[in-house]
Design goal:
Keywords: Oxidoreductase. Pfam families: adh_short_C2. It is built from 9 helices and 7 strands, in the order H-E-H-E-H-E-H-E-H-E-H-E-H-H-H-E. By secondary structure, it is of the alpha/beta class. The chain has a single domain, classed as NAD(P)-binding Rossmann-like Domain (Rossmann fold, 3-Layer(aba) Sandwich), CATH 3.40.50.720. It has a 7-stranded parallel β-sheet with strand order 3-2-1-4-5-6-7, sandwiched between helices. Helix 2 packs parallel to helix 3, helix 4 packs parallel to helix 5 and helix 5 packs parallel to helix 6. The chain is globular.
Length: about 290
C-alpha cells in the first residue's frame, strides 16, 4: 500500500474545487525535520555569501543565530534580515570580529555565552582563497594567509567553543572545499589549507565523539558567490565556472542552497549517527 502525504490530498481537493491546474497549486509543506527552535547557532563569515544564506536558513527555523563579519554595516544588515525571517522572534547576536585574530574569536564565544548561555551548533564557514605558484615571490605570505584564514581560525574557534558544545551535546559543521581533495596548480595555497582543515575535522571527530559532539564537513565545488571577488580570481574564475557548467555530470553550477541543505541536515538530529563525514556537493565533478 502506498501512503501519500496529506499535502497531496489537500492539493487534489483544491484542484477539484477550483479547477486550477495542479502545477499551479502550492502544497502546504513544513520543515519540521529541521526545527532549531531554542538552538544557538554560531556561524562565522555570515554577513554575506554562503554564510548569510546559512544564517537566514537557521533563522527561518527558529534558531538563535550569532552573525559574524568584519564590517559593522554588513553584520547589522544581516541581523535585521534575520530578525524579520524568524518565525518566533528569536533573539540574535551581531558580532563584528576578524576571525584571524584569536583574541576576537574568544571574545565572540564569550559574548555568545553571556547572551545565550550555550552554543549548540558551530558552523566554521569563514575562509578565503588566492592564486599561488611555487615560484611566487610572496609565496610565504600567501601560505600564512591561507592557513590563518582557512585553518588556524577554525581550529582556535573550535577550541574555545568545544567545552560549551560538550555541555549540550552539540555539533560542528565546517565548510571545506573539493580542492582539499583535488589538487589544483593555480590555487595551491588554498588546496593545502583545505586539505589541512579536512584532517582537523576527522581528527577531532574521534576525540569529541565520546563526549557526544559530532563533527562533519562539507566540500563544495566552485559556486557563484562573492568568493570570486574576495579571492581576487575575478574573470578567471568566471571562466572556470562556465567550463564547469559544461562538463559537470549534472550540467549546472552549484547553488548556495545546495550547500545550505546539507549543512541543515548535518546540524540537525536527522544526522545523529553521522560524525567525521565529508559530504561532497559538486554535482559529480569529482568523478571526472
Amino acid at each position: 500500500m502506498v501512503l501519500w502525504p496529506i499535502s497531496l490530498f489537500e492539493a487534489a481537493r483544491k484542484v477539484q474545487q477550483s479547477n486550477t491546474p495542479i502545477s499551479q497549486i502550492r502544497m502546504n509543506t513544513t520543515d519540521s525535520d529541521y526545527d532549531f527552535t531554542g538552538k544557538v547557532v554560531l556561524i562565522t563569515g555570515s554577513s554575506g555569501g554562503l554564510g548569510a544564506h546559512l544564517a537566514q536558513e537557521f533563522c527561518k527555523r527558529g534558531a538563535n543565530v550569532v552573525i559574524n563579519g568584519r564590517r559593522q554595516s554588513s553584520v547589522q544588515s544581516m541581523l535585521q534580515q534575520c530578525q524579520m525571517l524568524s518565525p518566533n522572534q528569536a533573539e540574535m547576536l551581531a558580532y563584528v570580529a576578524d576571525v584571524t585574530v584569536k583574541q576576537q574569536l574568544k571574545a565572540m564565544v564569550d559574548a555568545t555565552i553571556e547572551k545565550f548561555g550555550k552554543i549548540d551548533v558551530l558552523v566554521n564557514n569563514a575562509g578565503g582563497g588566492t592564486f599561488g605558484s611555487i615560484f611566487d615571490e610572496d609565496l610565504d605570505d600567501k601560505m600564512h594567509r591561507m592557513m590563518d584564514l582557512n585553518l588556524h581560525q577554525a581550529v582556535m574557534l573550535t577550541h574555545y567553543a568545544a567545552p560549551h558544545l560538550e555541555k549540550n551535546k552539540g555539533n560542528i559543521v565546517t565548510i571545506s572545499s573539493i580542492l582539499g581533495q583535488q589538487p589544483n596548480q593555480y590555487f595551491m595555497p588554498y588546496c593545502v589549507a583545505k586539505a589541512a582543515i579536512d584532517m582537523f575535522c576527522k581528527s577531532i571527530a574521534i576525540e569529541l565523539g565520546p563526549k557526544g559532539v559530532r563533527v562533519n564537513y562539507v566540500s563544495p565545488t566552485a559556486m557563484r558567490t562573492n568568493f570570486q571577488q574576495a579571492s581576487g580570481a575575478g574573470e578567471t574564475l568566471k571562466g572556470v565556472l562556465s567550463h564547469l557548467e559544461e562538463t559537470i555530470p549534472l550540467r549546472r553550477i552549484g547553488r548556495i542552497e545546495d550547500v545550505g541543505n546539507v549543512v541543515l541536515f548535518l546540524a540537525s538530529d536527522k544526522s545523529s549517527f553521522i560524525t567525521g563525514a565529508n559530504i561532497v556537493v559538486d554535482g559529480g565533478n569529482s568523478l571526472i
